[in-house]
Design a protein that fits this description.
Number of domains of chain B: 1
Order of helices and strands of chain B: HEHEEHEHEHEEH
Largest sheet of chain A: 5 strands, mixed
Largest interface: A-B, 35 and 41 residues
Radius of gyration of chain A: 18 Å
Oligomer: heterodimer
Strand content of chain A: 15-25%
Largest sheet of chain B: 5 strands, mixed
Radius of gyration of chain B: 18 Å
Number of helices of chain B: 6
Number of strands of chain A: 7
Number of domains of chain A: 1
Distance between the termini of chain A: 62 Å
Helix content of chain A: 25-40%
Shape of chain A: globular
Strand content of chain B: 15-25%
Strand order of the largest sheet of chain A: 5-4-3-6-7
CATH topology of chain B: Glutaredoxin
Number of strands of chain B: 7
Order of helices and strands of chain A: HEEEHHEHEHEEH
């Protein structure tokens, strides 16, 4: 049994060492120093979507960090909406994704889009975590209780209670126009989202 | 099983010989040679002129027409890099206005894990006047030890075009003017 284990483990370790796969080296910001929990490489996807492109986006109301409650349908008829579900606070890839969106407010505005950031964390955790990112211009929503209810309604709640790294683009009529349930270990390329926003105007 | 492991090792060794550059477990330290990286040639003519490069394809750091190259490893997604960006712009301006450094020190950024579009957004947002290279697949980032960002390196380019590290530190450079003074001293430009 011990021999079998070595036989499987050794090649696996060697593959990762020789191919230069780092243990969480994703170009992480110094802003978080030692505060990011090393999650390792996770199963890329662990849920089943419950909505499709062309469906009306399921409505929801969630508490935001600002203290207000935000209801998705308030944007209907006025703005396009991008939902950015993030697996969890204090994890490697997530901690970099929103700071990137934070410097491109103009790009969202150009496409008459609002961005709503959502995680399954509670507000105090979101407060401490997003404080490391500078001042965010977009609402950060807590899908903490009932736990992951909104993520589950969209079918992006993973079996461990975190959410998939998901982008949902909803047009002004409230119709879902794009869904990207991304490999949880990777950050979606910005240009893909921008291309989807550009499509809304056609 | 042992034979299988042995064959796998041979296979991986052969593969690794082709997959240059290899990952480093730490960044290069002062006194060490900068790894030989095939950096993509800038498309923009002004950036090429600034770096003193010609042709297409790739270039190595030692080919840059300068005595010293300051390299910033950054990410568009990193809040500290965003905060540092105006400082690095100030460093560039300080270099260009100081006779001890103008034309002798060049600045270059590597966007760790950033696509060309993402690097372009960063450049536009902060009006960055020096060339930035996209390292979407983290190839250069891994070769430089998978550092957190921002990370600053300075290299001296020797007569034989090798690049030797004189500065290698994580985090903010803590003031453009004092940083430039330090680099000028380390490089013996004065």
């Amino acid at each position: 049994m011990a021999g079998m284990k070595t036989g499987v483990l050794l090649p696996a370790v060697m593959v990762s060492v020789l191919l230069g796969i780092p243990s969480g080296a994703l170009g992480l910001s110094e802003a978080y120093r030692g505060d990011i929990f090393p999650v390792g490489i996770l199963k890329p996807r662990d849920s089943q979507l419950k909505v499709r492109v062309g469906d009306p986006a399921p409505d929801f109301t969630l508490p935001a960090l600002s203290g207000e409650k935000i209801t998705l349908s308030r944007y209907k008829g006025g703005k396009n909406v991008v939902l950015s579900f993030i697996p969890a606070a204090w994890t490697p890839v997530c901690s970099d994704q929103w700071p990137g969106y934070n410097i491109i407010k103009e790009l969202f505005e150009k496409h008459q889009a609002v961005l709503l950031g959502i995680t399954v964390d509670n507000l105090p955790t979101l407060f401490a975590w997003t404080n490391q990112m500078g001042t965010l211009w977009f609402p950060v929503l807590s899908d903490f209780w009932p736990h992951g209810q909104v993520a589950d309604r969209y079918g992006v709640l993973r079996s461990d209670g975190t959410a998939e790294r998901t982008l949902v683009v909803i047009d002004k009529k409230g119709i879902i126009r794009y869904i990207d349930v991304h490999d949880i270990n990777k950050r979606p390329r910005l240009e893909t989202l921008v291309q989807e926003l550009e499509k809304l105007e056609r | 099983m042992k034979r299988f492991v042995f064959l796998l090792m041979i296979l991986l060794l052969v593969l690794s010989a082709f997959s240059a550059p290899s990952a480093a477990d730490r960044p290069p330290r002062p006194g060490e040679l900068f790894p030989d990286l095939d950096l993509p040639m800038p498309k923009n003519a002004a950036e090429k002129t600034y770096l003193g490069l010609t042709g297409e394809g790739s270039f190595s750091l030692g080919q840059v027409k300068a005595q010293v190259v300051i390299l910033e490893i950054f990410s568009m997604y990193c809040p500290y890099c965003q905060k540092e960006a105006p400082q690095v712009n100030e460093l560039f301006r300080a270099i260009e206005t100081n006779p001890d450094s103008k034309g002798k020190i060049k600045v270059l950024g590597i966007g760790a894990g950033n696509s060309p579009f993402e690097v372009g957004m960063f450049k536009k947002t902060y009006a960055i006047p020096f060339p930035l290279i996209a390292d979407e697949d983290l190839i250069f980032h891994h070769a430089l030890g998978g550092v957190r960002t921002p990370y600053f390196l300075a290299v001296v380019i020797e007569k034989d075009k090798t690049a030797r590290v004189i500065f290698s530190e994580l985090g903010s450079m803590s003031g453009a003017k004092s940083f430039l003074k330090k680099i000028i001293e380390l490089a013996g430009l004065k």
